Amino acid sequence: MTIIETLQNAVALAVGQLYGETVEAGKVQVNTTPGEFTGDYTVVIFPFVKIAKKAPDAAGAEIGDFLQKNVAEVAGFNTIKGFLNLELSPAFWQNFLQSALTDPDFGRQPRNGRKVMVEYSSPNTNKPLHLGHVRNCLLGWTCSRILDAVGYDVVKTQIVNDRGVAICKSMLAWQKFGEGKTPESEGVKGDHFVGDFYVMFENKTKAEYEIWQQTDAAQGFFAEKHKPEQAEKDFFKEYKNKWFNEHSQLGAEVREMLLKWEAGDPDTVALWRQMNNWVYSGFDETYGKLGVAFDKLYYESDTYLLGKDIVEDGLKKGVFFRKDDGSVWVDLTDAGYDQKVVLRADGTSVYITQDIGTARMRYHDFDCEKMVYVVADEQNYHFVVLFEVLKRLGEPYADGLHHLSYGLVELPTGRMKTREGTVVDADDLMEEVVSLAWENARGRDSELTDTDPAGRSEDIRKIGMGALKFYMTKVNPRKKMIFNPEESVDLQGQTGPYIQYSYVRINGLMQRVEKEGVDLTPAKNYTDFQAEEKELLKALHEYPEVVLAAAREYDPSHLANFCYNLAKSYHRFWHEQSIFNADSPEAKAFRLQLSKAVGQVLLSGMSLLGIEMPARM
Asked: Are 84 and 214 in the same domain?
């Protein structure tokens, strides 16, 4: 039981005994006391004023007196305008600090025997991972670690979109223009190599379209089909997709290649496997640098036919209905949505059909009661519909589905466009933040050069990657964000390096303690807690609940901002209170133990965010 729960129960008991009214303990408002007031935790008295039939200060004084007499942890109190400020005993804080120091699992919860699946990344095999994938992967990875910390058995998955027209575009471009080149022959990562051919295809298509627009046939279409007020440029901009599907030579060749793949043509399938393997090799390298991994990979080429049997069964149950053209739909208008097709008239699947089948397959594979889909908010409606359909089908896991929807991420220069070849590449982004970390390090250490004589490269990699990961996770997932590489490595801002610096500073203290053999046993006799010490103790006490909140809301930003605020409080403590030169052995020992506890929690919290701590900065 936390101290807040203890106080809530005690206040409920006090109200019952003092005023003869029953109140629900969970509804008693207990908050951390603001720094400008004396106390550790504050009880809001206003809800009990009518019950007590007394002024707020009088009711607060009576409840405070009851708590001080009956709750061992409460050492004193004061009331200010309906707020009861409680001061906890030094013994409570001493016991808490020793418990946090000696518990290797502080902040974690026992295993709960429940299983959750988290799906993230889900890339296409026609291009390398980009800036959006970085946020996706980091949200999925950190949520997986946080869910593990609160007791779940976590299965980390991704579904690789390895088939379809987009993949065939890269394949056709390599077949027509690749001249037998390979990633090895060109010294290029496999995913970059294939992605270049995707961009090449789009450029070739653009050139083909521009030429076609000058033909008599194109001008005839414009004359016949354009709106009176529509300029020729605007007409052809809107007409491009229709042209690609009906008139483009490259478009026709891509569709033919897709049909050959679906028919199992040996040469086409062999080319598809070869190019996908190039991409997978590149993906693995990027995932390794990013520090994320998966327990199970699913492939769209294996799952795109799934769900059709479930739809047929749903027809019999009345969940779906068939239209006159033979297509199958679900009517969700009674839930405030619209009608959604789940099988085309020709019997082929749509995306939601595949997702219905994949969800059931995963449940059979792992028996997970929860499934978390990490997908950008552009797909919000898709997941609302998918989850509603699965509920109507009576799937046993339907109540445990969650869409971790996140906003798009941009650079200060604006959005990225894959088709134009201006995508912000994940590898380039990681290289840039590490390079910026090098520049900052050289600015502080004139002897540090690119040859790395001091062996600092691993520390600087951790700083650069810590900057990237923290910046991506400190923002609530639902919000759009702008990632600023230069700002992310700033040692003075709300950044990963700022927190890492606090840890390195504490680590240096602990090394000195060990080297000098400092006796820490007097710490137990310290009782004159200073404001900065209390601030740190209360922050440390909140850590387990912060981890629980981050898991409950699938929101790593709770944890990221907690780590930043803890580091900020420690910096304030460092500057306001002497540690090695404290006034007494008791204060010195206590402050060293307090520092060690802060370091342990920073290490734990940042680890859940996938951030490593450097040895030096």
From this structure: no
| 46 Cβ contact list (under 8 Å, min separation 6) | 56, 82
Pair 84, 210 in one domain:
no
Q: Are 599 and 530 within 8 A, CB to CB?
A: no
Identify the CATH number of the domain in which residue 36 sits.
3.30.1360.70
Whether residue 214 sits in one domain with residue 322 = no
Q: Are residues 130 and 254 in the same domain?
A: yes
Domain range for residue 234? Answer: 117-316+348-410
Residue linked to tokens 């133990």: 593
Residues 403, 383: Cα–Cα separation, whole Å: 7
Query: Above 90 in pLDDT, residue 216?
Result: yes
Residue 219 lies in a domain: yes
**Structural contact between residues 549 and 558, judged by C-beta atoms closer than 8 angstroms:** yes
Question: Average of pLDDT values for 121-133?
Answer: 94
- On whether both 29 and 141 belong to a single domain, the answer is no
Q: How many domains does the chain have?
A: 3
* Beta-bridge partners for 405: 375
Between CA 558 and CA 551 the distance in angstroms is 9
Cα 138 from Cα 163, distance rounded (Å):
25
pLDDT at residue 443 is higher than 90 = no
Q: What percent of the chain has pLDDT over 70?
A: 96
Instruction: Give the C-alpha separation, 258 to 348, whole Å.
Output: 14
301 is written with which tokens?
A: 């080429």
On the question of pLDDT at 39 being above 70, the answer is yes
CA-to-CA distance for 77 and 488, rounded, in angstroms? Answer: 43
